[in-house]
Design goal:
4 strands, elongated, alpha+beta
Length: about 70
């Protein structure tokens, strides 16, 4: 059975790579260039990057209000 892969690009944001683990296998994906990764891994990394962006947006809003609660 052939593993399905996709080409993924993660912008370089000061880190040379992103890393994580999937089913007991550690991985590092180089940033700043397109790399081919398994679909399952691409889904995990995409969700992780989305969560990081949402968190950053929330923290930025909190800081802009002087540390007051943002609804």
């Amino acid at each position: 059975m052939e593993k399905k892969t996709m080409l993924m690009f993660i912008p370089n944001t000061g880190m040379n790579y992103v890393e994580g683990s999937l089913n007991g296998h550690n991985f590092r994906i180089k940033t700043g260039e397109a790399v081919e990764v398994p679909l399952e891994l691409a889904a995990i990394v995409t969700e992780s990057q989305r969560a990081i962006a949402i968190d950053k947006k929330s923290v930025d809003a909190f800081v802009q209000t002087g540390g007051k609660r943002v609804l």
